[in-house]
Amino acid sequence: MLINNFFTITTLEQTDGVILSTIKIDASHQIFEGHFPNNPITPGVVQIQLVKELLEKTFNQTLFLKEIGRCKFLAILNPNENAEILIKIDFTKEDGIIKVTADGTSKEGSQTFFKFNARYERVININ
């Protein structure tokens, strides 16, 4: 949905229970025309969607956000100031559920934009 349009993946690595990704946000994307003109701010729901799409890319499956726990937006994510961000996702898989703790920080790690934990389920298509 947003991948390769709103953002592109610069790096994507998975190790034991951790996904690390650097992404680049397109500051000229139309989302910022309304949020907000001349002062682009990445909406919180978009930041949550970034994590979902990175999980889908990593696991090569469509996921459904079943539940979100503690969710904090700690700093404004302005793509003109921080076009590239680092997203870290700690995860476990259990009984078809992917439990995650995710955060998004500036590339050098000096600023945290969001933190949340959530549970995702695989979407099953029945035809």
List unreliable stretches of 5+ residues. none
Given helix and strand content, the structural type is alpha+beta
User: In the CATH hierarchy, what is the class?
Assistant: Alpha Beta
Distance between the termini: 22 Å
Tell me which oligomeric state these chains represent.
single chain
**Which fold name corresponds to the CATH topology?**
Thiol Ester Dehydrase, Chain A
Shape assignment: globular
CATH architecture: Roll
User: Count of DSSP helices?
Assistant: 2
Strand content: over 45%
H and E string: EEHHEEEE
Give descriptors for this structure.
127 residues; alpha+beta; Thiol Ester Dehydrase, Chain A; six-stranded antiparallel sheet; 2 helices; 6 strands; 16% helix
Question: Could you characterize what this model shows?
Answer:
The model has no long low-confidence stretch (mean pLDDT 94). The protein has a 6-stranded antiparallel β-sheet with strand order 1-2-4-5-6-3, with helices on one face. It has one domain (7-122): Thiol Ester Dehydrase, Chain A, CATH 3.10.129. The protein is of the alpha+beta class. The chain contains 2 helices and 6 strands; from the N terminus they run ββααββββ.
